[in-house]
Specification:
The chain has a single domain, classed as Rossmann fold (3-Layer(aba) Sandwich), CATH 3.40.50. 43% of the residues lie in helices and 21% in strands. It has five helices and five strands; from the N terminus they run βαβαβαβααβ. It has a five-stranded parallel sheet. Strand 1, helix 1 and strand 2 form a beta-alpha-beta unit. Helix 3 packs parallel to helix 5. The longest helix is centred in the middle third of the chain and has 22 residues. Pfam families: Usp.
Length: 143
């Protein structure tokens, strides 16, 4: 029997939203809560933002505010009695998801796969695959 929360990392895409339904089912099955995690990429290179009239810190703050707004909207759409926590972190998606996954109170990860195949699969880091290979708990990858 699982006692840890279900972690659902999201980028707010349709694919990630589809995985949320599985996370809710798993949480109901094991009678645990859901932790919703969104990672905001940290702007790292000043030269990429010179055309913008804002600093990388302001851009990061705007990205976090947008994520918080999407998170709030998502919570408003959920109709469940489950305990739901939300977390917004800054940094590399894989590292931050693994840190959260291996924090000790996560029993399972439900994560979406964007279904890249062929050359695109080899050129892009597959976050879901990496999490499945490195997580200390079971991982359900939803297509």
């Amino acid at each position: 029997m699982r006692t840890g929360n279900i972690l659902w990392p999201t980028d707010f895409s349709d694919t990630a939203s589809h995985a949320l339904q599985y996370a809710i089912e798993m949480a109901n099955l094991y009678q645990v809560g859901i932790r919703i995690l969104h990672i905001v990429d940290q702007p790292s290179d000043n030269e990429n933002y010179m055309i913008l009239a804002i600093t990388p810190q302001e851009l990061a703050k705007n990205m976090e505010d947008a994520a918080a707004s999407k998170m709030h909207e998502l919570l408003g759409q959920l109709n469940t009695d489950l305990k739901i926590e939300t977390v917004i972190r800054h940094g590399d998606a894989i590292n931050e998801i693994l840190d959260e996954t291996n924090s000790g109170d996560i029993g399972m990860v439900v994560i979406a796969s964007h279904g890249r195949t062929g050359l695109s699969h080899f050129l892009n880091v597959n976050v879901a695959e990496t999490i499945a290979n490195k997580a200390d708990c079971p991982v359900l990858i939803v297509k």
